[in-house]
């Protein structure tokens, strides 16, 4: 007992002595910090032997100017310098599902899955990823209806390696039988996954394009049909690549790199190179212009087994109603973008936060007034020679007729001036923010929205709608889900 009391007293005396010490030690010596290395230097002074940091400046490389150079073979090199250690590079090719009219549908889908596989220089995808890993890089490939993109983000110091890797991936893929067989399995799985998703938006987008542009250009299947999975082989892929993977249809784009260095790398790896499919030179390129046809597609399907988990979701019928718009090269593209923003919309839980998008037309006039509608969202797809403005809606199968009437009414009421002015007022702050951050990159058309929304784009847009442009063409409609008798 005495021993315990003595130990406790000693512990207390030690604690008291510790508390009696000054809370902070002498500024000349810090035992448990890096201050011991530089004992008498205040934090406001630079440390000796430490390199001076480089900060961003408002001039020089901070000017976000896009530079474009065309090589002798027709390939364009575009770049934009940006302060930072990392860069993003990509080879964009004017190819996609719209060019498959003379081929088996689904080639672009296959090429997307085959990207960054074995090449002439790299024996496997793992070797490619290991090479990128040395520069902290990642890679990706995406295809749309009219564009294929191979992209890499990595440290700027590895620019030469990355450009060489991209060139090898695009121009020298091996396309082995094993890789093609694995791609068939991946495509099959993706098609099954699309049919099992609770969100049918990808399928509806595919269907609305098929209805709007029947059997031509952007109306061709973006996803590989099931019946073509076993038919696409190396010979078919090489035939397509020979016509559409040509230098004059390619752009090497980079952000965060010096333009001269990027052009030098492009000349080294992309100029005078023999691709894996033989001598370059397109023989049979499809230059068809999109022809809007309009139409209706109905797919009756049991949606009761589609769910994210054990709790079933409501059984819904999904529709999409669309009209032809314009291409992104026309001056009417901005009014259509404003219209899409004005319509807005979303699902039951897609607002993203309090008040976010809650004052768009589809929220105010559709979702807030008709409780039985689960979704109402506006989409705008724009291409080089055409466009498509559409609204996706979902509701109980017994109320399909009423749902179609409501969506059609919203199309008719699009040209009300009061809504156009309100949209211009809501868009102006976004344009102002863009001007404050990138004043020299703001286009004149967007600047006119901020300066005078009523007297420029919006007045033109109001006349554009009220003159009936949207109503001179046939509507396209698609239906997906269970149908009730009479709907």
TrEMBL record:
The keyword Transit peptide applies. Keywords: Mitochondrion, Transit peptide. Residues 76-225 form the Peptidase M16 N-terminal domain. It is found in: Mitochondrion matrix. Residues 231-414 form the Peptidase M16 C-terminal domain. SUPFAM superfamilies: LuxS/MPP-like metallohydrolase (SSF63411). GO terms for cellular component: mitochondrial matrix. One of its GO terms (molecular function) is metalloendopeptidase activity. The keyword Mitochondrion applies. GO terms for biological process: proteolysis. InterPro entries: Metalloenz_LuxS/M16, MPP/UQCRC_Complex, Pept_M16_N, Pept_M16_Zn_BS, Peptidase_M16_C. It comes from the Eukaryota. PANTHER family: METALLOPROTEASE, MITOCHONDRIAL-PROCESSING PEPTIDASE SUBUNIT ALPHA. Belongs to the peptidase M16 family. Substrate recognition and binding subunit of the essential mitochondrial processing protease (MPP), which cleaves the mitochondrial sequence off newly imported precursors proteins. This is Mitochondrial-processing peptidase subunit alpha. It comes from Rattus norvegicus.
């Amino acid at each position: 007992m005495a021993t315990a009391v003595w130990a406790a007293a000693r512990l207390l005396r030690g604690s008291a002595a510790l508390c009696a010490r000054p809370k902070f030690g002498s500024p000349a010596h810090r035992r448990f910090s890096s201050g011991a290395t530089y004992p008498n230097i205040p934090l406001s002074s630079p440390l000796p032997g430490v390199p001076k940091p480089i900060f961003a400046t408002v001039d020089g490389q901070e000017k976000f100017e896009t530079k474009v150079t065309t090589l002798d073979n027709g390939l364009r090199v575009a770049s934009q310098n940006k302060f930072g250690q990392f860069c993003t590079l990509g080879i964009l090719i004017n190819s996609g599902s719209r060019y498959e009219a003379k081929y088996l549908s689904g080639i672009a889908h296959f090429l997307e899955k085959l990207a960054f596989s074995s090449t002439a220089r790299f024996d496997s995808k793992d070797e490619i990823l290991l090479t990128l890993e040395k520069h902290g890089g990642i890679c990706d490939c995406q295809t749309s209806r009219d564009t294929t993109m191979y992209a890499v983000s990595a440290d700027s110091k590895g620019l030469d390696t990355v450009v060489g890797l991209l060139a090898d991936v695009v121009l020298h893929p091996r396309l082995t039988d094993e890789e093609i067989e694995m791609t068939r399995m991946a495509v099959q799985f993706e098609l099954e996954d699309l049919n099992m998703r609770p969100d049918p938006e990808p399928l509806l987008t595919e269907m609305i394009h098929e209805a709007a542009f029947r059997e031509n250009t952007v109306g061709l299947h973006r996803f590989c049909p099931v019946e073509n999975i076993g038919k696409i082989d190396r010979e078919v892929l090489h035939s397509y690549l020979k016509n559409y993977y040509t230098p004059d249809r390619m752009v090497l784009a980079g952000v965060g790199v010096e333009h001269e260095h990027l052009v030098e790398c492009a000349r080294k790896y992309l100029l005078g190179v023999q691709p894996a499919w033989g001598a370059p030179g397109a023989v049979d390129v499809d230059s068809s212009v999109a022809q809007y046809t309009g139409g209706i597609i109905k797919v009756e399907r049991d949606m009761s087994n589609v769910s994210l988990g054990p709790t079933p979701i409501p059984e819904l019928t999904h529709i999409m109603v669309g009209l032809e718009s314009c291409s992104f090269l026309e001056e009417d593209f901005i009014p259509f973008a404003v219209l899409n923003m004005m319509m807005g919309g979303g699902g039951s839980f897609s607002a993203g936060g309090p008040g976010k998008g809650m004052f768009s037309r589809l929220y105010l006039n559709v979702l807030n007034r008709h409780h039985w509608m689960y979704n109402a969202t506006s989409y705008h797809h724009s291409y080089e020679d055409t466009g498509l403005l559409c609204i996706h809606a979902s509701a109980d199968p017994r109320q399909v007729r009423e749902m179609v009437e409501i969506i059609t009414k919203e199309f008719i009421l699009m040209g009300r001036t009061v809504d156009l002015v309100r949209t211009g007022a809501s868009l102006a702050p976004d344009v102002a923010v863009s001007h404050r951050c990138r004043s020299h990159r703001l286009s004149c058309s967007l600047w006119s929205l901020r300066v005078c929304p009523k007297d420029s784009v919006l007045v033109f847009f109001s006349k554009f709608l009220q003159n009936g442009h949207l109503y001179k063409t046939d509507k396209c409609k698609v239906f997906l889900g269970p149908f009730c008798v009479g709907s």
